[in-house]
Amino acid sequence: MPSTQPDSASFSDLSRNPKSVTAKAMCLGRLRITHRDGEDYMLTTAEDAERRDESLTTASRLFLALMKQDSGFRSLLIALPDVFPWVRHLDDEEVREFAVELFEALSDAAELEATGAVHRAIVSWRATARVHADPDQQRDALRPLTGLDLGPVEVCG
What we know:
Distance between the termini: 42 Å
Mean pLDDT: 89
Radius of gyration: 22 Å
Number of strands: 3
Order of helices and strands: EHHEEHHHHH
Number of helices: 7
Low-confidence stretches: none
Shape: extended
Structural class: mainly alpha
Strand order of the largest sheet: 1-2-3
């Protein structure tokens, strides 16, 4: 069964030899199914997916409970630079805002299956940190926009 990574198989492999591919998935716990014409998929057991969901829900609820206590929230804020080193470029209020947004997004991912919110929170705050880290970008970001013609705006539908 040819594939590019040992923990993956192509969609064609799955179509041609489903027993072999599913056996590999069972052995590994989960298997990436690459798709030439679309997004990749993960093949796993329902039980494993449910356990992952349960783990996310438990972690999310723990973070939210810690956020409600001053000492717990302070501990989470102290831990953030270990997980996201770029937060050092954010001021204290921005780090707090990031933490709240991140933990609420984790809750949404766990409780509502809205997984995109976690990615958006991390990506947007990392971009903010990147601007703060570069004096030229920060100067440009703080420049007033009044009187500037930024060109035509294209509306995507």
